[in-house]
């Protein structure tokens, strides 16, 4: 896996102060995408054990209240197990809340074992492709009105998509 950037302190991509990981690589071709460079799977830097250790260590900072994973396309990171291992490690070692953004829908992610395995360790999913003609700058934490903010664990328990309110 490659990553485009890490923001140690981010308030734009989820609630509270978060650490954000922007992965590289995306197979979507969303018109109006604001991270065009991140579409290339080898853009940025290789994800290494040292980078992962530094990222995990930063999550112990008392000012950090969660993790956000976006990109690129996190659910396209199934060529290796780097992202799956990372979300597992975040939960085991830090117990941090994990938000993940995807151009795939919850239903599409759940239909594939590798992406479902990643999602199972996350708490909130912002799903669906960015749609230029549905762009709405007044929305919190999403770019277009077709995108949903989903409580993953509640959705898994209830067997249906459960949206988070007030977003």
UniProtKB/TrEMBL annotation:
<dbReference type="InterPro" id="IPR001989">
    <property type="entry name" value="Radical_activat_CS"/>
</dbReference>
<dbReference type="GO" id="GO:0046872">
    <property type="term" value="F:metal ion binding"/>
</dbReference>
<dbReference type="InterPro" id="IPR012837">
    <property type="entry name" value="NrdG"/>
</dbReference>
<protein>
    <recommendedName>
        <fullName>Anaerobic ribonucleoside-triphosphate reductase-activating protein</fullName>
        <ecNumber>1.97.1.-</ecNumber>
    </recommendedName>
</protein>
<keyword id="KW-0411">Iron-sulfur</keyword>
<keyword id="KW-0560">Oxidoreductase</keyword>
<dbReference type="InterPro" id="IPR007197">
    <property type="entry name" value="rSAM"/>
</dbReference>
<keyword id="KW-0408">Iron</keyword>
<comment type="similarity">
    <text>Belongs to the organic radical-activating enzymes family.</text>
</comment>
<keyword id="KW-0479">Metal-binding</keyword>
<keyword id="KW-0004">4Fe-4S</keyword>
<keyword id="KW-0949">S-adenosyl-L-methionine</keyword>
<dbReference type="InterPro" id="IPR013785">
    <property type="entry name" value="Aldolase_TIM"/>
</dbReference>
<dbReference type="Pfam" id="PF13353">
    <property type="entry name" value="Fer4_12"/>
</dbReference>
<comment type="function">
    <text>Activation of anaerobic ribonucleoside-triphosphate reductase under anaerobic conditions by generation of an organic free radical, using S-adenosylmethionine and reduced flavodoxin as cosubstrates to produce 5'-deoxy-adenosine.</text>
</comment>
<dbReference type="GO" id="GO:0004748">
    <property type="term" value="F:ribonucleoside-diphosphate reductase activity, thioredoxin disulfide as acceptor"/>
</dbReference>
<dbReference type="GO" id="GO:0051539">
    <property type="term" value="F:4 iron, 4 sulfur cluster binding"/>
</dbReference>
<dbReference type="GO" id="GO:0043365">
    <property type="term" value="F:[formate-C-acetyltransferase]-activating enzyme activity"/>
</dbReference>
<dbReference type="InterPro" id="IPR034457">
    <property type="entry name" value="Organic_radical-activating"/>
</dbReference>
<dbReference type="InterPro" id="IPR058240">
    <property type="entry name" value="rSAM_sf"/>
</dbReference>
């Amino acid at each position: 896996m490659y990553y485009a950037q890490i923001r140690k302190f981010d308030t734009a991509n989820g609630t509270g102060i978060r650490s954000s990981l922007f992965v590289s690589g995306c197979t979507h071709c969303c018109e109006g995408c604001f991270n065009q460079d991140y579409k290339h799977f080898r853009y940025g830097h290789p994800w290494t054990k040292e980078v992962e250790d530094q990222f995990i260590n930063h999550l112990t900072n008392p000012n950090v209240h969660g993790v956000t994973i976006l990109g690129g396309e996190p659910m396209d990171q199934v060529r290796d197990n780097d992202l799956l291992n990372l979300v597992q490690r975040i939960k085991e070692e830090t117990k941090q809340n994990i938000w993940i953004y995807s151009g795939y829908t919850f239903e599409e992610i759940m239909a594939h074992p590798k992406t479902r395995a990643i999602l199972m360790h996350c708490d909130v999913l912002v799903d669906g492709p960015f749609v230029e003609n549905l762009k709405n700058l007044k929305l919190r934490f999403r770019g277009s009105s077709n995108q949903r903010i989903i409580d993953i664990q509640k959705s898994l328990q209830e067997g249906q998509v459960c949206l988070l309110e007030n977003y």
